[in-house]
Amino acid sequence: MNQERLMKVLCGPVITEKSTMIGEKHNQLAFVVIPDATKAEVKAAVEKLFNVKVESVQILNTKGKQKRFGRFMGKRSDVRKAYVALAEGQEINFAQEVK
After folding, report:
1. Nearest to 37 by CA among 12, 66, 64
2. What is the pTM of this model?
3. First CA to last CA across the chain, in angstroms?
């Protein structure tokens, strides 16, 4: 795979209560990915960037909600998320990774 593309596939981690519970229960992490990312690209990108072994990847698309901004109606952006299951004994600590 193209190394340059792999560096652009992951936009960032999803740090919420729900993603934290999933991480503790199923050893999974949630990432926001680019709209045309595939499971194979996400797996390769996580393994390359964090030096961990990925077991499986699940991808979902979240449609943006209609919201009101003052008098005007607007729409939030659509988001594509990837839930990455790490192999047994593997973990990523985002607090340590950032320097």
Report:
1. 12
2. 0.85
3. 28
